[in-house]
């Protein structure tokens, strides 16, 4: 069985603005990641073969590094990238919360506009997982959905408080 994470949400903003929220650091740093965690960008180049490398620091001081490797950037319609936990230098490392988490996840975000709102569809699938990694991913869907849902609630709040520049 092959599992994917799929989340579909609607935002009360143009797709150009929602796309910018994902692709411009001045926007992304205001909403991405777990609530209450510090978000620091080390490298950010949104283009084919570009990367986003960042750290997140929990309120109790634990630091996690994450890296995105962009494969497709089609403004304002689509973003495709692999994501993985990394060290400070950007090398792939095991997830800090589970040694059997897949090393890489392929993420596809599509942005469509409908009646002045943006519909965001996010699909995440493990890249070449072992059987054990796939089992862990399948068993963790509730955690994954909750994590992204919290992040996207922050995005909705952020979008409600800014105007298109």
UniProtKB/TrEMBL annotation:
SUPFAM superfamilies: Bet v1-like. It comes from the Bacteria. Pfam families: AHSA1. Residues 12-159 form the Activator of Hsp90 ATPase homologue 1/2-like C-terminal domain. Belongs to the AHA1 family. This is Uncharacterized conserved protein YndB, AHSA1/START domain.
């Amino acid at each position: 069985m092959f599992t994917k994470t799929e989340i579909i949400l609607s935002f009360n903003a143009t797709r150009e603005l929602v796309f910018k929220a994902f692709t411009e650091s001045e926007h992304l740093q205001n909403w991405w990641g777990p609530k209450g965690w510090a978000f620091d960008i080390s490298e950010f180049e949104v283009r084919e073969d570009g990367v986003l490398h960042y750290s997140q620091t929990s309120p109790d001081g634990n630091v996690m590094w994450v890296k995105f490797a962009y494969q497709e950037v089609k403004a304002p319609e689509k973003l495709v990238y692999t994501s993985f936990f990394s060290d400070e230098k950007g090398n792939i490392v095991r997830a800090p919360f589970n040694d059997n988490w897949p090393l890489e996840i392929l993420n596809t975000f599509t942005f469509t506009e409908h009646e002045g709102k943006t519909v965001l569809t996010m699909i995440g699938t493990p890249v070449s997982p072992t059987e054990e990694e796939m089992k862990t991913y399948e068993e963790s869907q509730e955690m994954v959905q909750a994590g992204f849902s919290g992040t996207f609630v922050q995005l909705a709040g952020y979008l409600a408080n800014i105007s298109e520049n």
